[in-house]
Fold this sequence. Notes:
This protein is an alpha/beta fold and 440 residues long. It is 26% helix and 23% strand. The chain is built from 11 helices and 22 strands. Strand 19 (336-340) and strand 20 form a beta hairpin. The longest helix is centred in the C-terminal third of the chain and has 18 residues, at 356-373. It binds calcium ion (CA) (2 copies). One calcium ion binds at residues 71, 74, 76, 291, 293.
Amino acid sequence: MKRKSLLFTLVLVILLMATSLSAMGKQASALASDKLFYVPDLLAAEYAFDLIEPDATTVTDMPVAKGFWTDMVDTENVSQSGEGVYVAVLDTGLLTLAPFLLSEANVAWDLGKGFSHDIYWDETIGDIVISDLKDDRGFWTDLASGHGTHVASTIVGFNVNDAFWVDGVAPAATIIPVLVLDAWVIPSPYGDLTLSGGTDEMVSAGIYYVADLAETLDGPVIINMSLGGPEPTQMIEDAIDYAIEKGVIVVASAGNEGAAGLGYPGGYPQVINAGAAGWASMFYYGWQGDVPEKLNTSDILGNPFQIYLEDFSSRPNKDLGQKHQDLDVAAPGAWVVGPYKSAFSSTVGYYYLSGTSMAAPHVTGISALVMQDHPELFQADLEAILRNAATGTPLPAADAIVAFPFEEPYYYISPWDGGDYGKGFLTADEAITVAGIKDK
Ligand SMILES: [Ca+2]
Ligand SMILES: [Ca+2]
């Protein structure tokens, strides 16, 4: 069974749109789609509010707001902040506004890196050519989307127009920006072709870079990959195994394909992966709504619980050889606010983003909180701790009614079955507690 992610399909659609009016044929799109198959695990982006020239680079004296997503994972109940822990965000890089969106203290600018290819039209073969990997790309986002900045903002928090700071899951962690997803506009005889995504070479180079860098750093290092492709590849799995051997923690999104199965790298069993949960009344109370501490209590919409599994969240597909235990935990992955721009646009705003892309940085952030106290933990140890911690908050196996503000009937039903969420919903306080017990 051949699977394609929605965004992978979108890349193809863009390709086909760019080429359908021409006589270029299928060769170029086949070449590009064959190689560029890692894309952000982002399902939907909704504009939230304007970004108006923020220029503060510290959070000192700024009021701190809490989004419902950090409330869902109970960061207010822990004293850890992720201090001393590095988080490498392998993604679309950082927006040039990032110094004003993320606190200066939160980013290791000098450790940032980017891996990409030149892609150009070759007249002699009448097709596009993807050059050898280059490692001097830098990490600043230009044509690609602000996805990497949004992911980073979930981990360490972000500035809203110098008016207030929205708390991150691990507000004192240090981001290492690593660009492994890029975008290109390629002039051709048939017009400009637009491409976006990452290759096996780009993603694996990013992983190797962080794994080797980790040996020179004085704190634990976590890789966050909120990205996915439809199939496993040996090159990426080798890179992941290399990083894990070096003591690096590897977290990835599970994918947005629902019952069609886990994407990759999330689908490798040795990776800690994250499915996406939502707060059923998030649209009712808004993004700064106060999430009840007891998550398995009835809510205002009539649900006998507060949180639910998003039906888009990938779950293991037995037909693909994926096992039940290949999905680890669920975390907030719907309607998470942060700075963002769409690909090929230059206008940055604050957006609500949904996808397992948003769940992964919650799991990464919680991992940073745990690693702050237990820097010696290896991947398998941490995975066991997070799975045990999530067991304490099972999601009930039932449909959820979710308020939906955009069109009648202003609600929708999200169906799921027990076990589709891995071991359960991960919260920071449970993770810290379980890690402490394990340590004794
Ligand atoms: Ca809470
Ligand atoms: Ca796993």
